[in-house]
Design goal:
By secondary structure, this protein is α/β, with parallel strands linked by helices. The protein has one domain: P-loop containing nucleotide triphosphate hydrolases (Rossmann fold). Helices cover about 25% and strands about 25% of the residues.
């Protein structure tokens, strides 16, 4: 599986870019899965539902299955968070895995950047960032080339990513 990430600070447009990229790339006939990192605890089911009650009762894993989808929830219960490589190994094979977040992981990435958010660029100090997708004109001050793409030009960003991963 080929892997490419979308990273950036909060409110940089990462999730919107991910959504557009998945739509664009799958429309080209390429299979895509995604991994999203959350920096906080989150719930994927609702209190009172059977799966929630199973987890709350102490189940390590809860597998929920229907004709439409399956969901596997695992409770870490104090164990360390799995690293990205371990999570990727759990996925079924696809052509491309797009990863949102995981700023410090070494996989190649595009940085989403919105000027209004007021955050500094990550790219100048991170060679794993291969391009910046920005809503403004800017230059990336670093020795290695780092193209700047229009944050709203999803086909161009998809073209860049697919070239980078050889698809």
């Amino acid at each position: 599986m080929r892997v490419f990430g979308v990273t950036g600070w909060k409110n940089a447009g990462k999730t919107g870019l991910m959504e557009r990229l998945v739509r664009e790339i799958t429309a080209r006939g390429i299979s895509v899965s995604t991994v999203k990192h959350a920096h906080h605890s989150f719930e994927v089911d609702q209190p009172g539902r059977d799966s929630y009650r199973h987890r709350e009762a102490g189940a390590h894993e809860v597998l929920l299955a229907s004709k439409a989808r399956i969901a596997l929830m695992q409770e870490l219960r104090g164990a360390p968070e799995p690293d990205l490589a371990d999570l990727l190994a759990r996925l079924a094979p696809v052509d491309l895995v797009l990863i949102e977040g995981y700023k410090r992981a070494p996989h190649p990435k595009v940085e989403a950047y919105r000027a209004a958010a007021g955050n500094p660029l990550i790219a100048p100090d991170d060679p794993s960032i291969r391009a910046v997708a920005a809503d403004c004109t800017l230059e990336v001050p670093r020795a290695a080339p780092c193209p700047v793409l229009d944050l709203d030009d999803t086909p161009a960003i998809a073209d860049f990513i697919l070239r980078e991963v050889g698809l």
